[in-house]
Amino acid sequence: MDNKELKAIIALLDDPDREVAEVISDTLLKKGIEAIPELEKAWENTLDEKIQERLEDIIQQIQFNTAKQHLLGWIKTGAEYILEGAFFVAQFQYPDIKFEKISNEIEKIRKDIWLELNDNLTALEKVRILNYFIFDIHHFSRNTADFYSPQNCYLNKVIETRKGNPISLAIIYLAVSYKLGLPIYGVNLPKNFILAYKNELSITDTDNEENNILFYINPYNNGAVLGRREIDYFLTQQQLKPQKSFYVPCSNRDIIIRLINNLILSYEKIGAPEKISGLKELLETVMT
């Protein structure tokens, strides 16, 4: 379908017959992301509020379907690189963002750190270098002034503002660590989100995975290093019963589930039900 045909189809959205309008909408939805430029032009060129509303609905649905398809594809292919999963979630709100731009920002940090790393360093020394560059040189920090802002969960905004929440700062840290080949993984700790540095030399024992962990890292506190005792104390403070999942690495899929749940909570706090319904559908896609 060329642009001329696309324009002709869009022009039929003003058909008073509801069934015709629905067929046209379905046709445009199937066309997908390629239809958006012409849909946006049509929106700019009409003064009819009903037509504008129809166009907005179609554009938003196409954008949502695209983000959902990308996220589902990421999961089906192994969900290996957490930056990609977080990017697809950000596409839910910011469909025009480019992965290359975000990836380049991570690459800048990786290069800075890589120049300082060598095989003679201990795991703790490597983490100190990561912390220095991520938090002191590239200025990532926690957003305490507006903790529940949805922007804290969208990867592009976190990179732009250098402000985030526990899960988004952990994703930045994980993305850099992944590119450096460091054995750092997410840990799904309630009311926070931390990382585990695994022993590279140990033989993996899935029945006793905690024994393979050298220490934990808290990105929300400038990469502070923790031991199991600190986690125990935190759980006691929060009146939470310890569970194995609070101490061992989780999957990248679990991290994205946590990210979407955080977004849902954020939109609940500010009262945006239309965003919540879409995010719940996105969450269902990830969980099934």
Explain how this protein is built.
The protein has 288 residues and is α+β, with helices and mostly antiparallel strands. It is built from 12 helices and 6 strands. Helix 4 (49-76) packs antiparallel against helix 5. The two termini are 34 Å apart. The protein has helices spanning 3-11, 18-31, 36-45, 49-76, 82-91, 99-114, 123-137, 155-161, 166-180, 228-237, 252-270, 273-287; strands spanning 141-142, 163-164, 184-187, 194-198, 213-218, 224-226. The protein folds into 2 domains: 3-76; 82-287, no CATH class. The mean pLDDT is 92. 58% of the residues lie in helices and 8% in strands.
How does the SSE layout of this entry go?
Blueprint: H1 3-11, H2 18-31, H3 36-45, H4 49-76, H5 82-91, H6 99-114, H7 123-137, E1 141-142, H8 155-161, E2 163-164, H9 166-180, E3 184-187, E4 194-198, E5 213-218, E6 224-226, H10 228-237, H11 252-270, H12 273-287
Parallel strand pairs: 1-2
Antiparallel strand pairs: 3-4, 4-5, 5-6
